Each structure stands twice: as C-alpha cells, then as structure tokens.
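HOLO CASE FILE
Compound: pyridoxal-5'-phosphate
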Amino acid sequence: MAIAYLNGEWQAPEEAKISIFDRGFMFGDGVYEVMPIYWQQVFTLDEHLMRLRRSLDEIRITPPFSDDEWKKLFAEAIERSGEETAFLYLQVTRGIAATRDHAYPVGVKPTVLVTVTAAPMLERESVVPYRMVTKADFRWGRGDIKVVSLIANGLLKNEALDEGFDDAILIRDGLVTESTLSNLFIVKDGIIITPPESRYLLHGITREHIIGLARSANLPLEERSISEEELADADEIWISSTEHEAWPVGEVNGKIIGNGEGGVVWQSIDTLFQESKKKMLTDAER
Ligand code: PLP
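Model generated. Tokens follow.
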C-alpha cells in the first residue's frame, strides 16, 4: 500500500496536500532522492543520505533531520507501507513563504515529503535494450545537485520519445554527460569507461555502486571523458540508475551497438549487481 509522510503526518499519497506558497511549487526550490527498497530495506542508504546532505548544503537548506532521524523515518514509512520491493521518494523544499520573493525567506521550516510506492523487482527478462538518440545538453550547469526542477530533462526525454526513441544521451561540448535520467557507461576493447564526476552530471549512486563492483572484480574501468565519436564506436553501452540498475543500450542514432543486445561485460556487471542486492539480505539475517 502506498504511503506518504508530509511534515509529520501520515496519509495516503493522494490525500497529501501542499500550500500553493511552497517554494518547491513556486520556484522548484528543493531537492529529492529516489531510493530502492529490496526486501523492506533501503539499498545503498548511506550513500543516498550523503548525497542528500550535499544537495541540501549546495542549495543552502539546513537539513531538517539527522541521518539517524532520516533512517527511523524511512523504516517507519516502509513498515507502514508493508511493501517488500518499492521506491522511497524523498523531497525537501525550502518551505512555505507567503511573499513571492527570490530572496530566501528567514526562519522558514523546510517541507519534508516521503512516499513509498510498490515497484516490482527488475527481472532480466523484462530488460529490453534501449534505442537512444544524442541531443545537445542544454541543462543548467549544476547537474550534480539533485534538484526537483527537471524541466530540461523532461523536455529532452519527451523530444526523444516523440522521435520514436526511448531516451536521449546528452552531449555537452562534444562530450557525453549522461542521459535525461541515468548515468552512462561504454565498453571499448574490454575496458569500461564512464564520464568522471563533474558539475554537469548527477553523481549517481548506482554509477558509484557499479564502479565499486567492477573494481572489486578487477574489471578494467576508467573514469574519463567520452567523446561523441567514442560513443558511436563503443562495443557496449549501458545506462545506470536506481530505477534501471544497469540497463543495456542496443542502438544509438540508428546504429546498432554490439549485437544490439546486452553485451558480455554488461552481463557480468548485472550478475554482480544482483548478487550485491542479495548480499544485503544475507547480511541482515546475520
Ligand atoms: N542522472 C540523472 C539525470 C538522474 O535523474 C538520475 C536518477 O534519477 C541518475 C543520473 C542516476 O542516479 P541514481 O543512480 O542515484 O539513481
């Protein structure tokens, strides 16, 4: 059952209401996180909390809760939902200010929203490689902050959909940044390559997890810029996000990548990924 926590109150998500003066609504003045829940536990919880703290710090909102308080709140949300496999969505905005002003209001309490909604565990059989198109990355210069204003990501995604693709791979100054909703990896001659962290892309938790898995398995991996030409010439391409885990790309701009299916390196990473999820379960049982 989906559940929402809004500023101290537990409700059905469709019942939850915010003020028209909430700065999240008026200005897109807030940040968010999407966390995966497997077997009633948040996967990579500490990493998500660390990114949340960084996002709040970057937009100058004092964290309304400590990490321990967040953890208690999330545990209660999961318990109330009763869901085994779900997404936990967290949004923190600057709060409610009756005067519409770019200047930050003083002494305002942030708005805190947490929802848990059921999401089936990803099955290998349901993973159909994406057909992608490249597009100029015209988003603002702070893609590293997980802000709620996703207008540019939405525009780019919908342009790609209207053109018959699944999503867009974004290019800034001739280099790949990410997709509209995920980070990106390529494989060339057995080497996994992903763009380095910068202000132009989200520092994805799934990206970081995959890098850790690859390094532990001694798979060669480089964090470095990827040119448009390298992208076109890649043996494998995959995207990564909380919702997609590691997801293969079969085609870019009409050109088939590899054999158009998930490649062998993607398969190894996906296997490691699934094992790392199960490890969370066995660790909890101990
Ligand atoms: N890049 C963008 C633009 C995203 O919106 C997301 C996820 O929403 C990601 C990357 C992947 O981040 P994560 O792995 O933390 O879900």
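CASE NOTES: The CA atoms of residues 68 and 126 lie 36 Å apart. The mean pLDDT is 97.
CLOSED: yes
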